[in-house]
Amino acid sequence: MAAILGGLFGAAPAFAARVTGFAGTLAGPAQQGLPPMPQRLPPTSDTTTWTIVIVLTLLTVLPALLLSMTPFVRILIVFHFLRQALGTQNTPSNQTLLGLGLFLTYFLMQPVGAEIGRVAITPLEEHRITAMQALDRGSEPLRDYMLKFTREKDLALLTEIARLPRPHSASDLPMRVVIPAYILSEMKAGFQIGAVLFLPFMVVDMVVAAVTTSVGMLQLPPVIISTPLKILLFVVADGWNLVVGSLLKSFT
């Protein structure tokens, strides 16, 4: 029995060697038939990587940029006040006013966009500057545009809250101060224009209410009579042309 076990254990290393050799013989042709492993792809350039990051970020925050750095805020506030003054409730619809506001915003911002494309986007596409340099260059025309319509009072308020040193000029302020100051200024301008728009329509409402009360028509709401009169007055005066023209001229 000991001889049999000794023979088995003695033959085990030789058997293992034969199995290993046979497996190597089978694996050799299979490995030779496989395609070579692809080499590691070269890393993308820094410019391309940062371009993708910036584009994806802009797509994410595009609504916020549209509302905070363009005339869209003032235009939308004025349109809202106008609709309330006319008393037409949901006419024009929100989609109509938003579409008109977007195209008016594009009309006003086209020169600024062209300047940004000239100083930032075109050099970036030609690989003459990096993405961060393009971002710095592109922010300059936008900052100049916003500072043109931003009140010094709003800039001073946010500069004081941010505890920044007094700048030599407004162009030295960071965007985190300029953008909220610009929004505050645009909101005030929109409310001022909306208040002026309310005055003639409020006069019509008061006159109609006085007439209906004096003739004893207490059961008839004055709005039923004043609304058609306000719409007629607005159409005869070519109100949309006047409102849009005044809005566009306020940005020149």
Q: What's the Cα radius of gyration?
A: 36 Å
Distance between the termini: 110 Å
| Low-confidence regions | 1-35, 37-44
Characterize the overall form. Answer: elongated
What class, by secondary structure content? mainly alpha
The biggest sheet, with number of strands, parallel, antiparallel or mixed sense and barrel status, is:
none
What does this structure look like?
The chain is 77% helix and 0% strand. It is mainly α. Helix 4 packs parallel to helix 8 (175-214), helix 6 runs parallel beside helix 8 and helix 8 crosses helix 9. The longest helix has 40 residues, at 175-214. The chain is elongated, with a radius of gyration of 36 Å.
What secondary-structure arrangement, pairings included, does this model have?
Blueprint: H1 2-33, H2 46-60, H3 62-68, H4 72-86, H5 94-125, H6 131-148, H7 152-161, H8 175-214, H9 222-236, H10 239-249
Helix pairs in contact: 4-5, 4-8, 5-6, 6-8, 7-8, 8-9
Key descriptive features of the protein:
252 residues, mainly alpha, disordered N terminus
Task: Provide a short characterization of the protein structure.
The chain has 252 residues and is mostly helical.
